[in-house]
Amino acid sequence: MIVAERSAAGAADGALVLFHGRGADENDLYPLLDALDPERRLHGYTPRAPLTLPPGGAHWYVVPRVGYPDPATFREGYGGLVEWFDALPFPAGRVVLGGFSQGAVMSYAVGLGDGRPRTAALIALSGFIPVVEGWEPDLEPPFPPIAIAHGTQDPVIPVEFGRRARELLEGAGADPLYRESPIGHWIDPEVIPELREVVAET
Fold first, then answer.
1. Residue 93 region, left (φ>0) first, then alpha (ψ -120 to 50), else beta?
2. pLDDT tens column, 68-85
3. Greatest CA span in the chain, whole angstroms?
4. Which of 52, 67, 116, 126 has the maximum number of C-beta atoms within 10 A of its C-beta?
C-alpha cells in the first residue's frame, strides 16, 4: 500500500491515520495531519486507496448507490486496509482514525467493524456507516470519542447519512460530537479547532 507519512516531533505518543475520499490520493488529507495535530505528538499516515477507477484517482470501493458500497470491491479495500492498519507499530488504542467521504466510511468500517479493536478516537467527515454484505458494525459500548461533521448542502453524500450515523451511535450509547455546516461536500475549516481538541484529548 502506498502511504504518505509525517513523523512526530519526538517520540510518538501514537498515530493519526487519515483516509482520503473517492478519486483523491494519499496527498489529499496530508495537510490535515498538521491541522489536527499541530504539536506533532502523533506519527501521521495517509494511505492511498487500492482501486483505480473512472474518472480517475484512487477509490476504496465501487459506488453502485450512496450508502451501500459494492460488496466485492468493499471487501477488497477493507481487507487490505485492515491488514495494513493491524501492522502499524502502534496498537489500535493509540491510533486516532479519521477520514473524509469514502475515507470516513472506511474509518467507520475499520474502527467500528465487528471483531475490530477500538481506536483512540474516530473522526468521520461527510461520510456514513456502511450497509454492505460481509460487514457489520460493533455497537457494543464502550465507544471511543467520535466526531462527525457534515455539510447540510452536500450533494454527494446527503447530510441525512451523517444524521443517521449519529442516531445509530447515540441509540447504542455513544455520545458523538456532531456538527453540521451550511456547505457542500468538503471539510469546513471552522470545525477543525473542535476536531483538534478531540485529537489532543486522546
1. alpha
2. 999 999 999 999 999 999
3. 44
4. 126
